[in-house]
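(Fold this chain)
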Amino acid sequence: MNINRRHFLRGIGGATLALPWLESLSDTPKKTIPTRMAHFYVPIGVVRRGFFPGEENDIIPKGNLGNLMHSLGEQSPFFSVEKLGQLTPTLKPLEAIKGKVNLITGMDRTFQDGTDVHAQCACCYLSSAAPYSVEQSAWPLDRTLDHVVGDHVGHQTAFRTLEFGCNPHQDNKESIYFDNISWYGTGHLAPSIRDPRKMFRRLFSTQETLRFGEVTDLVLEDARWLKRRLGKNDQHKFEEYFESIRMIEQQMERLGVMRDALTKSDVQEPPESYLPRGEFLRLMGELMVVALQTGLTHVATFMVGPERWDTPYMFDGLFDKPKSHHGMSHNQTEDIEDLLRVDQFHMEQFAYLVEKMDSIQEADGRTLLDHTLFTYGSGLGDGSTHQYNDLPIIVAGSGGGALRTGLHVHSPEGTPLANLWLTQARAMGLTLERFADSQGEVSALRIG
């Protein structure tokens, strides 16, 4: 059988719809499955006693002790690698998948004096440049990891990188440095897309699809023709993939109807109320997963929310009125329980996407998650003290077997976060000698 995959992708009316790898397509023979990399960024740190093992009764330390040790070039001797055991309350949503995740603790970043702590923790998170090493910027902001990796792996994909943002506010309360983790270079922002409809159109649409309707409707005739010619296993995979696209479209249809209804109402509601917060995050996350699955990109960043943006969110199912994440982080004595619930809420969204990736089988029998490095992290170790040491980091997936999983790796105090970024870059196939202020790889994670 000779089915031309590119011809099918073109579809009718100029519509385009990328497909996952299907064994039945003669011009897509089995080959090495690509490794993907995605970053799920949570702002304002976490409540340490809920996230970090052994800290449930600790008083949050004041100051950047680890940051100071790093800047002095000193390290404490404490280092450990152990099987990831009982999960803390914030990490509980990962229980079903904990064998495929790693908890990384003890990693530090350095703070450059004279610039805002929140802006710097976001915009410099994936660049990790050493303080005062970038002369033309008040921040140690350089080309971020996603673009460094995208330069190497993006030549085979439609999009070298994709940037997802989940801040629907239009008030521009803070500068771009508070609301973006992806940068082409110093002063050159890689703008994120924050509307799921715009992201969907970027991924799947042409002018013809916008004129005639849904992408899936436009390619349905070709899809039915193709499905009859696929093997049994591929038919199931095709149906699963096609249904995921349809589900996303239906969610966005509902989003559009809700927006239209709100424009006719006299009641003024904040933009984030158009979809419940969790549903909005999952919809954007599902778009990211589909983009990684189909090879539209191999590299993505996903920013859950902005740093120090006091406009409140209505966290669905948590509170009966909108709350400011930043405001709660500075009032942990009074708001500790609410803030712990927000941390778990964010972890639930991450866990949902991790399990989604692990449900998608690829050509070699392993899953999309197995071929991905999907990192949860924040630029602050604690939002109330603004400490840059001992950041909350989780890495899901093994990067195609490059990393061990199911571990808790605690690094010596003063270990730069860039060590993990160097490890990930090399797992993605780059031959970098170092990345930013790295001192070496996280060798405990590496296989071989």
User: Anything to note?
Assistant: The beta strands are 36-41, 80-83, 101-108, 162-165, 183-185, 188-189, 299-303, 372-377, 393-396, 407-416. DSSP finds 13 helices and ten strands in the chain. The mean pLDDT is 80.
